[in-house]
Every structure is written in C-alpha cells, then in structure tokens.
Amino acid sequence: MPVPERRGLVARSLLRDDAYRALRNAIVDGTLAPGERLNDAELVSWLGVSRTPIREALARLELSGLVQTRPGRFTMVSPVDSREARGAQSVVAAMHELAVREAVPLLGEPELDAMRAANARFRDALRENRVDDALAADDAFHAVAVDACANPVIRAVLEQHSPVLRRVERLRFSSLAGRASVAQHDTIIARCAEGDAEGASLAARANWQTLAPLLDAAPGLSHQQ
Question: Is the CB of residue 207 less than 8 Å from the CB of residue 188?
Fold first, then answer.
C-alpha cells in the first residue's frame, strides 16, 4: 500500500489534545485565573509543545467559553460569566438526564458498584475538604452512565460544555452545600438498581440543577444582562 501523503496525524492529535487538557485543567482549577492574559511563547515554554497545538487548544477552549480571543490584540482566560454558566448548566443537566435514561437498561452490578464506590470517595473527599478529589470522584460517578450509554453525541456535548461548570463546582464542593450531592447520588443509584430509568434520569437532572443558586451568589462571577 502506498504511504499516505498526510503524515504525523496521530502525533499532532495527541499533542493538541494534551495541550487542550493541560490548559483546560489549569483554567478550571484556578492556576490560570479569570482575566489572565495567555502568551503563546509562555505557554509553549510551559507545556513543551510547539505553537500550533497551543493555538488549536486555545481555539477549542474558546468554543467552550473558557478563553476569549481578540485577534491581533490578546488571548485571555474568560471571566466566569453567570449567563454562560446557566446555559452550560441547562445543556449539561439535559445530557446527563439522557445518559442515565439510556444507560439504566444496560447497567449491571459492576456498574452499580462503580457508582457506589465513586460516591463513597466523593463523600470522604468532601468531609476532608479535598476539593480536587471530590471533583474527580464526582466525574467518576457520572461517567458510569455516560460510558454505559455509549452515545458519542452525549460525550461530545459534555466535553464542550462541562468545563465551564467545573469552575463553579469548585465553589460548591468547597462549601457545605456540596454535601447534599452525596444523598442525591444515592437516590440516582437506588433508582438505577430498581431499573427505574425515568426516576433515575430525573434525579440526575435534579442533581445538576443544584448548581443554580451558586450561579447568582458565587463571588467572581460576572452577571451580564
């Protein structure tokens, strides 16, 4: 078979994805603060990759609402805007509701045990005020249904819109209010174990809607009209 003329696609994709994840995580965890200017040369030095995957990663982050670009002027970390966060919350809640509804008929004991274990880690992390661990455990809990439903569209939409909410969730999981999620997760698990797709999916949606009060009250959020 002739060698394809286009080369290096896998390596370039990996570099782009690695750069995207590194920058996304730095924005979500506050390493790169809202309003901070992003300089290509500094990012190249920090991440150890060329300018091309950096620019591709920044373009993806702009689509997710985490970065703002003014061509020829600046690129910066977006402020945490309440209107954008509300829009992302609506989309993310709907996608998790759909993921659970589609996943329930496919869940077995291994998946239910994975949800229980993730929620136990989540509970312990909240008790010990380990915010990063709580976020990771929350991700693992919700990922069970997303993986089980095997719907690539749901995964793609969540990949785009979830990062905006992660900055708000860090505030929730740093407070006592976040501990209500443990009981909400237990309700989702119970409905899934009963095979109640409708009840489980509505419980999943309600769980994501608990972010709403923070979108109005959290410090650092801009409230555009």
Answer: yes
Rounded CA-CA distance 56/69 in Å is 13
Give the number of other Cβ atoms within 10 Å of residue 12's Cβ.
14
Strand-strand pairing, 80-81 and 221-222: parallel
Give the integer Cα–Cα distance in Å for 77 and 59.
12
Residue with tokens 């966060």: 85
CB contact set of 28 (below 8 Å; sequence gap of 6+): 66, 163, 166, 167, 170
Domains, in order of start, for the chain: 9-79 (1.10.10.10), 81-218 (1.20.120.530)
Strand runs labelled E in 44-202 = 67-70, 74-77, 80-81
Spatial distance between the Cα atoms of 27 and 77, rounded to a whole number of angstroms? 7
Which mean pLDDT values do the consecutive 10-residue runs of the chain (225 residues) have? 38 71 86 87 86 89 87 84 84 96 97 98 92 91 97 94 82 67 96 98 93 62 47
Counting Cα atoms < 13 Å in the Cβ hemisphere of 212 gives: 9
- How far is residue 210's CA from residue 214's CA, in Å, rounded to a whole number? 8
Closest CA to 106 of 66, 137, 150: 150
